[in-house]
Design brief:
InterPro entries: PFD_beta-like, PfdB, Prefoldin. One of its GO terms (biological process) is protein folding. Pfam families: Prefoldin_2. Its main location: cytoplasm. One of its GO terms (molecular function) is unfolded protein binding. By secondary structure, this protein is mostly helical. It has one domain: Helix Hairpins (Orthogonal Bundle), CATH 1.10.287. It contains two helices and two strands. Strands 1-2 form a two-stranded antiparallel ribbon. A hairpin with a 2-residue loop joins strand 1 and strand 2. Helix 1 runs antiparallel to helix 2.
Length: about 120
């Protein structure tokens, strides 16, 4: 059926699919970051309940390294800040993608309406 569509409409449909895939990718990234952010916040809450001289280890690659409670808290806060910034960036990208999707969808609807009217004549 798509071979019956004008090239411009086929191009718009391809763009629409591409934008939809981008939106899905962003949504997955956002969910992953939100999950990691929640884990980081939970770890921070647990660390803050420990005594100052508690033995703390943090994961670096495949290794666990002994560290101080304060250092672990500092690292988690830095990670939390980085994740929050990344989450804001993805949210902005989602807004732009959503607008682009709606714009393309409207263009395709109009083109299909024109195309359908054209075929009926």
């Amino acid at each position: 059926m798509s071979s019956e569509l004008p090239p411009q409409v086929q191009n718009q449909l391809a763009q629409l699919q591409q934008v939809q895939q981008q939106a899905q990718t962003l949504a997955m990234q956002k969910n992953q970051i939100e999950s990691t952010l929640k884990e980081t916040e939970t770890a921070l809450e647990e660390l803050e309940q420990l005594s100052g001289d508690a033995v703390v280890y943090r994961t670096v690659g495949d290794m666990q390294i002994r560290t101080t409670k304060d250092d672990a808290i500092e690292k988690l806060k830095e990670r939390n800040e980085t994740l929050s910034l990344r989450l804001q960036s993805i949210s902005r990208q989602e807004e732009r993608i959503s607008k682009r999707f709606n714009q393309l969808q409207e263009q395709v609807k109009q083109a299909m309406g024109t195309q359908g009217g054209y075929q009926a004549q």
